[in-house]
Design brief:
The complex is a heterodimer of chains A (113) and B (114). Chain A is mainly β and 113 residues long. Chain A has strands at residues 4-5, 10-14, 19-25, 32-38, 45-51, 56-59, 62-67, 72-77, 86-93, 102-103, 107-112. Chain B contains no helices and 11 strands. Classes of the chains: A mainly beta (113), B mainly beta (114).
């Protein structure tokens, strides 16, 4: 059962515009959420995270929003740059201390110059 | 320090053969994780170590799979009697225990079982 879902397999955005990547989860025990970026032939790279006690976290051009009641989070990239083109994975942690992450299936972002 | 490294990057093997992969984590990281990623999916947790102790194993880790981290440094993942369904990317990640949410991934080992 897929506890973390990314329903959009791909997204194309013009350079300079906002990219919004979405993620839904089903397990209410998740207490920490992360976004990873993955380029071809490389492992995922940590991008930004948010604790379940917050609803927003911002780091430069990247902002993650969490809506616990809707079990939904989103990643906003503003402004989008061609170098942002990659696969983005949403991940969640259940707070047991093991920190084994549950990943979504990924969204491929293409930023068009 | 150049990050998490994995060896080999690619492995092609015939069904029924045994394979072993190696992961070298970031040197000061005491947690090490193994994940498996199949086409079109996100990484799936397999197992993790805190220093040399293997603390959790996923139900995905059948008895054909074994992982070790003998001195709390590098780790190996062995798959015995490989099956075609084992074809996947095997990812290793490491983290500092107190910052475990942020895991640093290696480039992965792509296994193809023919």
């Amino acid at each position: 059962d897929q506890q973390v879902k990314q329903n959009s397999p791909s997204l194309s955005v013009q350079e300079g515009r906002i990219s919004i990547l979405n993620c839904d989860y089903t397990n209410s025990m998740f207490d920490y959420f992360l976004w990873y970026k993955k380029y071809p032939a490389e492992g995922p790279t940590f991008l930004i995270s948010i604790s379940s006690i917050k609803d927003k976290n911002e780091d430069g051009r990247f902002t993650v929003f969490l809506n616990k009641s809707a079990k939904h989070l989103s990643l906003h990239i503003v402004p989008s740059q061609p170098g942002d083109s990659a696969v983005y994975f949403c991940a969640a942690d259940i707070g047991t201390g093991a920190n084994n992450l549950f990943f979504g299936t990924g969204t491929r972002l293409t930023v068009i110059p | 320090d150049t990050g998490v490294s994995q060896d080999p990057r690619h492995k092609i093997t015939k069904r029924g053969q045994n394979v072993t992969f190696r992961c070298d984590p970031i040197s000061e990281h005491n947690r090490l994780y193994w994940y498996r990623q199949t086409l079109g999916q996100g990484p799936e947790f397999l197992t993790y170590f805190q220093n040399e102790a293997q603390l959790e194993k996923s139900r995905l880790l059948s008895d054909r799979f074994s992982a070790e981290r003998p001195k709390g440094s590098f780790s190996t993942l062995e798959i015995q009697r490989t099956e075609q369904g084992d074809s996947a990317m095997y990812l290793c990640a490491s983290s500092l225990a107190q910052w475990s949410y942020e895991q640093y991934f290696g480039p992965g080992t792509r296994l193809t079982v023919t």
